[in-house]
Amino acid sequence: MDRFLSATKKWLKRLAMAYMLGFANAIKQEVKTVDDTFFKTEEVQKEKKG
Question: What is the C-alpha to C-alpha distance for residues 31 and 48, in angstroms, rounded to an integer?
């Protein structure tokens, strides 16, 4: 029984770490898309009349 609890605890720690890493990557990606305005910005040149 003690061995089962030890293995369960080990897998729960791994699951928690994987979840946290995935959550951190999701936040990083979200911040990257919010801060990255390069593709959304367009430069418009005024045309001369005449």
Answer: 40
Q: What angle do CA 13, 18, 22 make, to 5 degrees?
A: 150
Query: Position 34: which residue type?
Result: V
Task: Pull the structure tokens for residue 28.
Answer: 């990083």
Q: Which residues of the chain have pLDDT under 50?
A: none
Give helix then strand counts, H and E, for the chain. 1, 0
What does pTM read for this prediction? Answer: 0.50
In the DSSP assignment, the letter for residue 48 is: P
